[in-house]
Model the fold of this input.
Amino acid sequence: MHQSTLAQLSTALESNQISSEELTRHYLERCKQFNKSLNCFITINEESALTQAKLADIQRKTGDATPLTGIPIAQKDIFCTNGVKTSCGSKMLDNFIAPYDATLVRKMNLAGIVNIGKTNMDEFAMGSSNETSFYGAVKNPWNKETVPGGSSGGSACVVAARLSPAATGTDTGGSIRQPASLCGITGLKPTYGRVSRYGMIAFASSLDQGGPMTQTAEDAGLIMNVIAGFDERDSTSAEHPVDDYTARLNDSIEGIKIGLPKQYFSEGLDSNIAELIQEGIKELEKLGATCKEIELPNTELSIPAYYVVAPAECSSNLSRFDGVRFGHSCENPRDLSDLYCRSRSEGFGKEVKRRIMIGTYVLSSGYYDAYYLKAQRIRHLIRLDFQKALADVDVIAGPTATGTAFKLNEMMGDPVSMYRSDLYTVSANLAGLPAISIPAGFVNNLPVGMQLIGNYFEESRLLNIAHRFQQATDHHKAIPEGFE
Amino acid sequence: MDWETVIGLEIHTQLATKSKIFSGAATTYGAEPNTQACEVDLGLPGVLPVLNEQAVLMAIKFGLAIGAEIPKRSIFSRKNYFYPDLPKGYQISQFELPIVNSGHIEIQLADGTTKEVGITRAHLEEDAGKSMHEGFGDQTGIDLNRAGTPLLEIVSEPDMRSAKEAVAYMKKVHSIVCYLEICDGNMQEGSFRCDANVSIRPKGEEAFGTRTELKNINSFRYVEQAINIEIERQVDILEDGGKIEQETRLYDPNRNETRSMRSKEEANDYRYFPDPDLLPIQIDVELIEKVRNQLPELPNAKKQRFIDEFNLSDYDSGVLTAQKEIADYFEDCVVITEGEAKLSANWINGELSASLNKENKDITESPVTPKMLGSMIKLINDDTISGKIAKQVFEAMWNGEGSADSIVERKNLKQVTDRGVIEKLVDDVIANNPIQVTQYKATPEEKKEKLIGYFVGQIMKKSQGKANPKKVNELLIEKLDT
Done:
């Protein structure tokens, strides 16, 4: 049952081969069984998931169902879920029961989706290995000595280990795509503003975007059909019309022009990965796509620009965690300043503090122009690079991550190397473009992801190419040993 | 030494929107603590602000009313600082690109001349909550009902030279925002309050002295007192050879003194940056024109119209138009009286204003409506009652005894105009005062007028004030001179 894709389960539910309750019970059992070794869930919603499942079965019977009614999905613990702990992977919010639903969660509830649990993540989505979580590191199901990537590491792990047919993630600098790459699943970061950020705990507001993490592109399209769209509660969400994200999946990709950025295949890239990506691209060519080399000249600047803009926004976004109204509050504060200092010192982990410090610094008077403003200018240049490139090609392809899953603890002492591993993903966030990572094969039994970056609001095209690729390949079907 | 004072004001105007500037929660004043704070106002994790368009329209109205430029694009910024009643740890405000740029306001000085005060800018921002230090033992209570209430901060140029000018300016801004109906103007509830930047310099000097900022003053009287006491303090320091510290000070009206709150060194670095949760405000010419067409008549224009249309004095017109409700009252009253502007103005600025002041009432709470007052003035005009009796009638109306007509009827206050009746009164008085009559006759013509008052007084007394004074006069002179 758990080897099926979301789309297959949807059909099974539709044709009454299985009930949502059976399905949910099955996945709940797997979650409980494997969470001990993988640590991918912060909360498993056993009771409420079963209630939702029973309700979904009634909806199916009364014909009041959507394609995803009764399907269990895991939510990254960054999305506020009414009445359920929403920790954002932090001690700061270990005691926080969200009193409202994020728009994405509300839409999924309305569609009859069963919320099976809240997945582990890097603290406040800051990290690329899921090791900064207050709840401990998540293990990569392909090799438990390695990390699943981050920050949506729990979600990627859950999908790879088939503990849930799909999950949600958020992507600020690669947090959907990089763990998708490292865990061998499909992860879509939509165009900035395509999915509402309301109720998604903010890390860097101008970069954050929620999206699906699934086995296949088709599954990602099914979820996009539920979560995409304008939200009057999010001023930055786009009023752009929403596609039917599954309608064009099977379109021919004959004649599609793919750009290969020179800068994405340079010396920083593991040669084994480069080879797999080249093979993937050849596969796309077999399907009728044409490829050409392109330039994204400011790629190198994307990391420094990102690590100024994101911490700047995070330093302000995380100011609300002050121990006054919710979240961790220190014992017996002497005075107001003690309350602030100790609540925040105790509540936040090391990486979050580091970024708050960097952000506070770059926004300080006297440094603002040199750092924040300059980073914004670079961001503008990067956007122009993409505009220019995408005037010439339909999509841009390349690797998702600079390497495969690395060993636990290997990078924790070296934040700059960790930051550099986001090299291929942060640009899409800085430019606000949609991008998808799809499984492209294995190096030393560890998955490798191929990234496709599209033009604004062209998620359908990305899903179409990814789907056609997946029709022609089997990489996405592989299940890690012990989880079949 | 002769010192010159330099004052600039930052006025915080609470905009009269129904809901908050970035959330749907209500803005009504005085609700139970924290009952008007939704998840957005509480700054819960994950929430986002959505701009209230009404606040934008109100800011544009103000900008147009002061002849300011409304830029096509303005942006919101975050002002970062920690305070318990600031839920997000930052205030959404405007920094680089405010919604209103450089305008000006004309104020009237005591000597009757006018002066233009420049407005540097006006920007939109959200108010913070309130910290409550009483009733929580050694802790502080937080009420977030006010958090997110829209404010328009109006920043003046340092153009004022005395506390009186500052008050005149503040009153004018108050009048304008009330005319525009963008603020309820209620200063006790904090809907209209100001920070005053005060410095002094030797007369003739061009460079500004070091300024202090007096925070959060919420009455016209306190503004004047606070500035004056601060000027005195600065003069004392400088004349003793000291230096003024640039700092923020708080005015304590109970002790009539200003106290230091924080110095420049302790000042926050607010780390302003554009709020990534909000899109820039785009304002096109059509919208500006639409708002312009909806602008009401403003105080200065109304004042001039009253002078032209009703032939009122500059003073009367100024008093009547200072508050829109008074001007409306006046115009309603004039309609009832069928055009008796001068008497209407006299009664409103005189008797009515005195009664309102005595009971500390606003004109909107007056028990005497424009219709009531107008009807009474009509009775004066058609000689039904005298001006003197009218004061009695007014008082009775004020005390809720009904309309002028019914009071006059009930109390039998109708003026006596019948020649026969008055003649009888005149004859009686002449007969009963032979000495005064002799005296009168002996008095030279030019001094007679003085004496006649005595007889008038007697007659009025006898008629209980109801005899028509004009007729009494006529008949008296006629009779005494024969």
About this structure: Residues 3-290 of chain B form one domain. Chain B has three domains: 3-290, 299-411, 419-480.
